């Protein structure tokens, strides 16, 4: 059972990162391999400025890190265990609620059958 405030903060931070589909896509892409921002933007079909904002969010959350590579900067997951956690979380959610669709958090219910 989570009782420490820091445990709750860590999970909430991870949840905020996963709350945006673009950030999810970035994390899943980086799970496969480190990448440069321009390559990520092209692969995900988003503008470089939009990608930059999401990368900054993920970096501030401590989920991704930058690695200088000459005159370029490469992004990668801060810890390989994050990739495993993403796989496990996706598999668990699919296993228990494959017939549900999440709606906007502003509505009365989060997930509906």
UniProtKB/TrEMBL annotation:
Entry-linked InterPro entries: ArsR-like_HTH, HTH_ArsR_DNA-bd_dom, HTH_Metal-responsive_Reg, WH-like_DNA-bd_sf, WH_DNA-bd_sf
A biological process from GO: response to cadmium ion
Oligomer and partners: Homodimer.
Q: Which UniProt keywords apply?
A: Cadmium, DNA-binding, Metal-binding, Transcription, Transcription regulation
Its source organism is Streptomyces chumphonensis
What name appears for this protein in its UniProt entry? HTH-type transcriptional regulator CmtR
Q: Which residues form the HTH arsR-type domain?
A: 4-100
Q: Does the keyword Nucleus apply?
A: no
Tell me, what does this protein do in biology? Metal-responsive transcriptional repressor for the cmt operon. Binding of cadmium or lead causes the repressor to dissociate from the DNA.
Alphabetized CDD domains for the sequence: HTH_ARSR (cd00090)
Enumerate the GO terms in the molecular function aspect.
Answer: cadmium ion sensor activity; DNA binding; DNA-binding transcription factor activity; lead ion binding
**NCBIfam families, alphabetically?**
HTH_metalloreg
Where are the bilayer-spanning segments?
none
Entry-linked Pfam families: HTH_5 (PF01022)
Q: Which Gene3D superfamilies match?
A: Winged helix-like DNA-binding domain superfamily/Winged helix DNA-binding domain
Where does the source fall among the domains of life?
Bacteria
